[in-house]
Amino acid sequence: MYELKTKETDHSVIEFIETVDSPKKREDAYKLLDIFTETTGYDAKMWGPSIIGFGAYHYKYESGHEGDAPLVGFSPRKAKISLYFAVGDDRNREYLLKDFGKHTTGKACVYINKVADIDIEVLKALINQSVAFLKEKYPSH
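RE: above sequence
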């Protein structure tokens, strides 16, 4: 059975942020913590060793693989800050990202260098859209 590496833990979000080497990234992590908490209404939780997640949902794929994941989250990594949004709602995400500011994208992540590079209102819209999409797709949580 496949074991999920990224599970919710009871490690301290603040303690994790305090371990971020770059003072600028640490400051951005606190800004994002405030924005995500205020926008979602969820308390921040650590998922695995380095993802700060908000809310949770239980997914089950047609393959039978299932697990839990945060609705949205972020991680202040060394190279860039990773922002985690819903996968599968690509059209809405692409539409919002046009006005987001300086970023790059991966399958599930949006990467930014710093909070000053992005539009905070668009970030809030991305968070809200992601939460709404996942709650509709996985209503059981």
